Amino acid sequence: MVNFDQEIGEGGAFANASLIERVIKELTSGAMPPPEASSLTEADRDAAIKEMRMQLQRLVESLPVKAAPASRLNRFQYNYTVRDLFRLDRDIFLLSEKLMDRDSAYLQVIGQEHADRRIADQVRVLTSSAVGRVGMRGVKAFPKDLRAEHGFDNQADQLTLSPLLLDSFFNLSVSILESPDFNSTSVGVWEEFFADPGLGEDLEMNVRERLRPFLTIAFRQKVESEILERYTNYALESISSCGSFTDGMKKVAAATLSSPLFLYRTSAESTENSCYALASKLSYFLWGSCPDAAVLELASTGELRDQKVLDETVDRMLCDPRVVRFLDSFPVQWLQLENVLAATPNPKLSPLYSLIPDQPAGLHMLLEPLILFDMVFVENRPISELLSPEFAYQSSFLQNWYLSDLKPDAVDEVLIQKTNAERERERLKWKQIIAQTQIEINAMMDLVKEGLGKDRDDWVDSSNLKPYAAWEFDHDLMDRVGALDLQAHGDVTFNNGSVQLSHSFLQSEPLADDFVEKSFEVRFSLDELDQPGGGLMTMQGPRGLFDSIVIGERQNRHWISGSNGFRRTEDFLGSFAEMVTTEPIHLVMTYEANGETKLYRNGVPYGKPFNKGREPFPKKESTILFGLRHLPAGGNRYLSVSIDQAKLYDRVLTPKEVHDAYQFGSTYLSNDEMKKVLSEKEIAQFQSLRKQLVEASNRLVDIPEDISVEQVQKDNQRSFEERIAALIRQRDFQRVKISDPRYGGIMTNAAVLTMTSGPDRTHPVARGVWIAEVIYNDPPSPPPNDIPPLSESEDQSNLTIREQFSIHRENPSCAGCHNQLDPLGFALENYDVTGRWRTHYANGRPIDSSGNLFERNIFETVGEFKKNLVSNEEQFAQAFAEHLMRYALGRDLSPKDRVEARELVLQLEAERYPLRDIIKSIIQSKSFTN
Fold first, then answer.
1. What are the pLDDT digits (tens) for 345-368?
2. Three-state DSSP class for 587?
3. C-alpha to C-alpha distance for 317 and 308, rounded to whole angstroms
């Protein structure tokens, strides 16, 4: 509590600069005076703020500039300092702090001399974690540095050096120089520093002259003679002990990387060193690395202190490709985007977010605000465009995420039913034609059989299609037919001309011939399959070797199978659902002389032939089995099948023979036989009937299966998910004009909205805190420990979150912060846990995003909220400048720093605070240059 009745003067409340700052912020935010007190008019409020600022200005003028503390290199700076020192072509270790990879030509425009710099309309970027970048072999990074308040990892007071970390630096420096990736190809300074000068050179002078520029860059200051001599002597000793110039120089380079002069940036102790300190400030601010030779040369002469030279140097550095490191570091930490990596939306509520398990959508989403920052930086746009941009860069995925319903194509069930009905009518038509044609064919065949006087009831073929073993399954199952006996094992029954094998199997006597150049044929119906796998027809050799035509549910298919290491081919053929049918299925498997095996289903080839070489199934050691589940003993446990006919041919059937066997069943008549009974006209009629039967059968087969609504839904969902996954993997982002204020900007993008939500619901307080910290640099105090959590009990399930918060605010301890944070957080409540727009909660209640900003800017929608933020852009500009100054200085800001930051940005008010100009102003400040 501040007592305004207290005298304002020496020793009074307003002699405390921090307290004055607090009062100004409270007045600006509308938190003062409190609601229970009398309110201020706009004029009184503005007058009070103006008076406070003047008092603060007078007070800080007498305060000294805060000294710059010694600061250790963080991981980001260490990596790039080593890279630049040796001109390495890669990172030394995996740099997880870097979240975005750009195409090489992405930022070329920053080096253009003319003022009209503009990024291309289409850029290619990718989340660094998805690139799979790795560092140098054998090099292990030291742990990530602690983050200070607001997320910056370059704050000196956090960059401590424990004995354990110091030891890690020693080991790291050695591992870099000893890495196999540290060689003449990857190291740009190899020839000038590591390459052997050869005979005839003054070794000591050569080493000294190599070390002087190397140490100057490594230590970022003029190298004292004593230090130079110490490193020269160490190098000479190392070269002598190693017996190699290159190895000796690697030792001295490793020692350099372990030196406190390398690891630490220290404040200046003299005017001369102050220029070097300024050079380091510049380079680590803009490049995240050591100054180059040109900047160090200006520091050595003192010219860097000249304002014109400093401005020219800053312009050059801002146009150098190394400035991309500033873009890789500052916006990520300022916007706290690494929190996206920890976001875990509930997969049941947001299944598409984690569609690619190792590449969640958040990794793609975070690219949007980073490219926006790049655009505002490169094109030197007003920083208000970070809040409400005229343009943004979005991918096809993001445009779908924001603007589409993210649902697969709808299924037209009426059309499907109509189509299926048409197909069924077509099937019935051709089935009737087939049945009638078959009756006519059978009638003519009966005439021929009667005329020939032969019994054509068994399955006997012409000389072109003659088996050496065939089984007709009649009532006497044990009758010997052809060359084999069939022995029944288990429950084998006969029904309507078919053998039924239910949890049983048939096995032949040993074969009389080797099983080479043979064919299997079987006609069957599948009744049941309790569990995966059942051998319909199996060729069994010695030692349990076998090949089978298998019926199984593996991937809902049936296939040709092999076992015991011989054949593992899985040529999947037709769906299992097609097999469970009353329609007989005709299968043929042929064994070629060269070991190639083919499978035919219903007269046509199925799958690809495969060749396993000649696998011997020798005579007297091989048998044929029907309905076998597995070997050895156990028989058929799960397969229930009806087998109508089966044959074993002593040769390989041709495709035409297979087709004819399927098409005409068990009876085959040659033309000579038909001529003995039928007239030429009758034969022509018979041939015409056969042709008609084939054509009708083909037409029937060609009719597509009925469309399943469920399957179409699954197919649409799979196709939709594949399309979304492909969009997530895309690298192209397009420049789009933002016409809808709901989208675009650092607040209303999917990345920030996702990371400020929980798995199941949005968190208005978290979003409000983020805005307070990032946009206004005014983080709230941590809540007291006794603050109860927001109740989410079932009796409140029909309440909106705003209504639940109103109950929460009844606690006086909660009300203070919530009155400031809630308007900020609820302004974004129309965005769900992954940043998608919504108008109602899951319980059907409408969403209310209205509020009051700074107790004087009323808004109803997020568009009006963003508009109010832009109308108060001076406040955002000062907060942004404070964030930037803190990052640039690597320390917390004093009231004097913040007053100077405000003065600097006010000078840019007419231009609406361009980003690059703010950076230049920070560098020109006394806080930076002192």
1. 999 999 999 999 889 999 999 999
2. strand
3. 14
Judge contact between 423 and 704, C-beta under 8 A.
yes
Q: Which of 842, 846, 847, 908 is nearest to 877 (CA)?
A: 908
Contact call for residues 141 and 75 (beta carbons, < 8 A): yes
Pair 906, 874: CB distance under 8 Å: yes
Cα–Cα nearest to 572, from 516, 610, 546, 538: 610
Percent of the chain at pLDDT above 90?
A: 48
Q: What is the pLDDT of residues 872-894, one digit of tens each?
A: 899 999 999 999 999 999 999 99
Structure-token match 């970048």, residue found: 133
- Quote the distance between the C-alpha of residue 572 and its chain's center: 32
What is the distance in angstroms between the CA of the first residue and the CA of the last residue of the chain?
36
Q: SS3 helix, strand, coil % of the chain, rounded to 5?
A: 45, 15, 40
Q: Are residues 804 and 790 in contact, defined by beta-carbon separation less than 8 angstroms? A: yes
Average pLDDT (127-135) is: 70
The alpha carbon dihedral of 768, 770, 776, 778 has a sign of: positive
Task: Select from 448, 855, 484, 890 the least CA-distant residue to 669.
Answer: 448
The token pair at 860 is 């109803």
Percentage of the chain surpassing pLDDT 70? 77
Confirm if 219 and 203 have CB atoms less than 8 A apart.
no
In a 3-state reduction of DSSP, which class is residue 888?
helix
Architecture label for domain 459-666: Sandwich (2.60)
CA 378 vs CA 125, 319, 794, 914: distances in Å: 16, 9, 51, 10
Residue 122 has pLDDT above 50, yes or no: yes
